[in-house]
Amino acid sequence: MKIAKDKVVSIEYTLRDDAGTIIDTSEGREPLAYLHGNGNLIPGLEAQLEGHGVDETLKVAVAPADGYGEFDASQVIDVPRSQFTGVPDLAVGMQFTASGPEGQRIVTITKVGLETVTVDGNHPLAGQTLNFDVKIVGIREASADELSHGHVHGAGGHHH
Fold it and tell me: Is 113 exposed, middle or buried (0-12, 13-18, 19+ CB in 10 A)?
């Protein structure tokens, strides 16, 4: 069986940045299970897995546009420190949920000043090439529930 739309795929992976630093890995955990062709993975990785089979290993480089997007400087803004009432010890790296015209998003503090706090609304991996080492460890038919929900249930997937 080959990876195709609506197949449940299980992969082991390691994600590195361009310097070779590990960003994420499935090592020591269950393989990641996803429903192929349903937007459960970043588009660039999913596209490069299409058509491959169990026990295949791949090295996949995903450009920012096919990963978490290009870095958008307009998403880095200064906000009044008063917007963070109830948080006495603001620090670089803290993350908060912010509401805006496009809905809710996670923002990360990048600078703390006396009067303002700089937050970045970009995904932390925006603008980066993502380098994956992937081993395909399973492919199966999706259940009717998985197809109707658009994601995998059970081991390596979503639990309701």
Answer: exposed
